[in-house]
Target: NAD(P)-binding domain-containing protein
Amino acid sequence: MTSNTKTVAFFGASTGVGLSALKHTLAAGHKCIALCRDPSKLTAIFPSGSQPNLKIVEGNAHDILPVLQCLQTDDGRIVDTIVSTIGAKPTGFSVDDPDVCKKGAATMLDALDQLRSTGITGKPHIIATSTAGFSRFVRDVPLVMRPVYYLFVSVPGADKVVMEDRFSQSEESFTIFRASHLVDGESNNKIPIRVGIEDPKTGPECMAIGYTISREDAGKWLAENLVLKLDPKYVNKNVTVTY
Model:
């Protein structure tokens, strides 16, 4: 370990973007604490002893006690970075929990307040995964995709908007990570990733409107640009990634 080693808390990292970001963060030598409702999903990927820098905590991101456990380092500080990729599972035209993201944000912020009230210090950077398609300022998805977002993403999208507001209106350091439509598949190094930046108060600084990005590439970009080395231009901004 070096003085540059970070401790990163992950919520929702057993699949998709979160799992990709976790893998790349571990590969860079950082300590990771992952909260999972079903730890077997991660132990199947990281067998016992294969990743000494990974600590898996069983629990729900809406329950304060396991969240408190995940937000503390071994030496009694608040973690350096928090990555939340929690989200609802689709059930036809709706989702299994339409409030999953807003409840997760509230629990995380309450946990940070509780830790600080007991004298535990730290100012983590929070990376919260949202989705493209719900900017208050401009259309941020292709026009032909609007009906798809209206039919299938309106309920989870509304939840993510509230989550975004909770972090942007807090006094925490944050980045809202928005991806275009997520698809399966390996990293596609032949297609450049385009990045849009939006200020939550004043609107777009640069636009990136696209159709898709793979979960693998989205998680890799998140790890490289927001966790391993945080670019200051993304601090307290909404960031969109797409092919």
User: Anything to note?
Assistant: DSSP finds seven helices and 13 strands in the chain. The chain has a mean pLDDT of 95. Helices lie at 16-27, 40-43, 64-70, 100-117, 146-152, 154-168, 215-227.
